[in-house]
Amino acid sequence: MGRSIYCVVTAAGSGTRLGHNEPKALVNLAGKPILHHALCGLEPLGDLAGVAITAPANYLETFTQIAREAALSYPWTVLPGGSSRQKSVYEGLKGLLSFEPGNGQLPANDPTAIVLIHDAARALTPIAQFERVCQAVESGCPAVVPATELIDTVREVKGDTFTRQGLKITPAGSTPDRSRLRCVQTPQGFAGDIIFAAHDRAREESICEGEAVDDAVLVATLGHEQYFVPGSMRALKITYPLDLKLATWLAENPDRD
Length: 257
What we know:
This protein is of the alpha/beta class. The protein has a single domain, classed as Spore Coat Polysaccharide Biosynthesis Protein SpsA, Chain A, CATH 3.90.550. Helices cover 28% and strands 18% of the residues. It contains seven helices and ten strands. The protein has helices at residues 34-40, 60-69, 85-96, 127-138, 192-204, 215-220, 241-252; strands at residues 5-10, 28-29, 32-33, 48-55, 76-80, 114-119, 143-149, 182-184, 188-191, 227-230. The strands form two sheets. Strands 1, 4, 5, 6, 7, 8, 9 and 10 form an eight-stranded mixed sheet that branches. The radius of gyration is 19 Å and the shape is globular. The two termini are 28 Å apart.
């Protein structure tokens, strides 16, 4: 590809919704931790100059051991994440600057560097999706988001939502045009200087108060357009037990969807 590529892998999330007391990245997926699959999924991507893995502060040694056992060919580091995803990404970006560029590579905050932000929970993301994002950034797009079309009808509700017992009724709201909506995934890709500037400004001006839904939102606050490339059903986010079951089937059947 020719440009230095860096990646922040956010893996500091809990496994509560999966029904586990350990971090989500440590949950078993087809015989290996979710984190193992996420890190190995980056292997075929050429020009990787460094990967920063954010982890819960009290699990740094465990995450480091998983990365070691994966025998990764690219440079990597494990560092503590923050109290939110946005803060974890910021810590990961700082970690990318710890890599010493070599062989013509440029630092992560250089305008020509490509920085990917990827959720470890999307552990089975196809390499083709990484490549689509990188190619779009390389072509001049400042912020690139992989996305899929919605399957379900989406309803915008008014007031409180119903309770689990169904005792509270929500007034009917509008139904947005599904053809104009997308489900966004990772990795999201950015020109190096832009993603660093977006996170620096967010911290300085308390934008989103550390709770941005994704990094493209922060980049948009600088006035940059977001560009979309096709996502993949294999890049599902493992959040609930049913997601883990589906991901297990996908991991055991890599050539079938």
